[in-house]
Prior knowledge:
Structural class: mainly beta
Helix content: under 10%
Amino acid sequence: MPLLTLFALPSRAARHLARAAAACALLAALLLPRGGAYAQVPVTRPSEVEPVTAPKLLESPAPSFPEAGRAAGVTRQEVVLRVMVDEHGVVTTAEPTEPVGHGFYEAAIEAAQSYRFSPAMRGEAPISARILVSVVFELPPPPPPPPSPPPPPNEPAAPAAAPAAAPPSAAVEITVQGQSEAERARRSSDAVHVVETEAAQRQSADLGEVLARTQGVGVQRSGGLGSDVRFSLNGLTDDQIRFFLDGLPLDVAGYPFGIANVPVNLVERVEIYRGVVPIRFGGDALGGAVNLVSDRDVRGTHGSASLQVGSFGTYRATLGARHLHEPSGWFTRVNAFVDRAKNDYPMDVGVPDAKGREVPARVYRFHDAYAAEGANVETGLVNKRWARRLLLRAFFTRYEKEIQHNLMMTFNPYGDVELAEAVAGASLRYENTFARRVAVKALAGYSYSATVYEDLGRCVYDWFGQCIRERAQPGERRGRPEDQLYREHAGFVRLNADWRVLAGHTLTFSSAPTLNARSGDERRQANAEARDPLSAERRLMTWVSGLEYRAELFQNRLENAAFVKDYLQLLRSEDPLASGSFRRLDRSTHRLGFGDSLRYTLAEWVYAKASYEWATRLPNPDEVFGNAFPVRPNLELQPEVSHNVNLGLTLSGEVAPLGKLRGDVNGFVRSAARLIVLVGDDEMATYQNVYSARSRGVELAGGWTSPGDYLWLDGNVTWVDFRNTSTQGAFAANEGDRIPNRPYLFGTGSARLQMSHVAAPTDELSLTWTSRYVHEFFRGWEGLGTSKLTVPAQLVHSAVLTYLVRGEPTQLSFSGEAQNVTNADAFDVFGVPRPGRAFYFKATASL
């Protein structure tokens, strides 16, 4: 069936909102030709705008079948027209998408000009739209044969022939293929890069690996599945980036084990906001934000499942289902996952021989298993006059992780150190539009987490997993027993209100308070009579508010969003002293921030973006209060601030007969003060303010798809120059040095060969090869000494063969994947090897 593509066009231009936006628009208008083609570029704000609906056909007079077509023996002909429907539902232009002979072209246009539509709607406002209309001409069946002569007397009469069918009118078929949420996000003024996971869901690479293949993103791991992960974006790392699931902070949404271990089959796309974060998230961030978007469709009934098995005892499974009871509007969605991994891959280490000399040996990792499972249920009402969505979501997640060694894998391994966490909570989401101009979205969430850290082992282990001697007292990591329980209550509320002042002009207000309360219990205290240090009061309240004015000018060629933010943080805590007493430590912080983001469409296939934010990031609970392993508290931490700048150019289009081309270049600068960095030795680390640092760099990405979509080639490269600029304090001696333990040059390339019509017309077979390169980097400050600890350069390849069965209503996929095909040495952390060659099989089903 032909598809209708909807292009939303504002009905009138708007006045300039600010001199900066006006100057940019004037310059672009002078340099670029004017024309109606620009109006076809569909640029809307992602997620927050009212939906656009297609025109509906009200009247379609039947066209006459062309005599030339009848004479040529044609009995059926389809003509696809590109039709412009104005805000009154009147067809203003009609033209064919491809030439058609025998008079059908002229007859279809003549008929279309007499059609009457209801106009396209953005929310409840009529707008112009360009659509594809399929007009089907079909001749009536031939007339029945003449009646037989009358029968002889006394014989029954033959039954009368059925009357001839009336000539049918020409059929008009209209189907909508709206612009995807991902494309709307890309073409907004936001500094966002969107990663769609449809292909990744059929492969074995986890979400951490999917993100590591994206320009500007670095993912460092200390082992296999479930290991500690450092996520970096344009040089800034860890909690300098905020993470969300459908706009809800990830730690309040039920995924405490980090973004890399979230099951990729539960994520439809990933939105990566580079340095400039929209106020609608209600979060503070220094280097940007990452929003995982799950299946938000609330239509019909749908189910999906996946199962993955592979090397090193890896098993992963997901299950999802949704159902809408249309008469009542009651909707329910269920998701669940289970992960298991032994992580017993081989690695090379140094072990003592019989004379105590260190010799190389190949051993298998032990005591490094990971287990996680979780489920969530979402239910409520949708598509009501008083609530577009009112949904309650409840979740439970738990994980257990064995810990085998310290940060750099020095000294003897551990055989009994373990970490476990369980999280339960709920969230309530409400969305609706009032008085046709005000859209309200409210979100509230609560979670309770319990974390247990145990170090009660009595053995000294070697790298072969053997207990070589007993310890004088329990405790492998610090020489004393530790049995710690951490409890945390977290609450989050966010209110977003969009007021459509005029067509193309929107004022947005956002307010989002977050409360964290933490307590603990050391169940193996050295002095049972003393007060437990973990019982100290730990309360942190953060409140981020914002106001944004977004304008779409010059028929959507220019979109600009200017915003201000307000940050407030209140700390209420007790600081345990070495004497066993406690001192009161309360602190309040208040700051303001502002920024602007701009997108200008140069042509339908190319657009430019520029953005800036004076950003503030307030310390989070883990940075201030520490966590079970291996971060210690630092109650003196100060907020970090940064000037963030992005400038980019994106192109995407089809160049006949070469195929589809795409490219993206983005330059960035991050000039940060009081930068919070994790600093420590092999056993323990603490977050500290480094005072100032500067990151600048460039991201390049490009791709090509052959005609017929048989071959896909993609690649990207990122260079980051992230240096310490402190002139005073503890790090002044390292002024000008690169910030240590951060990759600064890395890239990914991939090639996919795809075949269709394999066993059935809709089946698809694909072979994908991916290569990822990371240049060597220093573990410590590059200016210290001549002998430096270096993480070596590495090039890792993977290959995956996928067979996709597209059916109605079921879709199946089967894939076999080899990761680290060449069994290359791979390190993200100095001294800690990543897994070598591994094989996986994955199957998915969707219906």
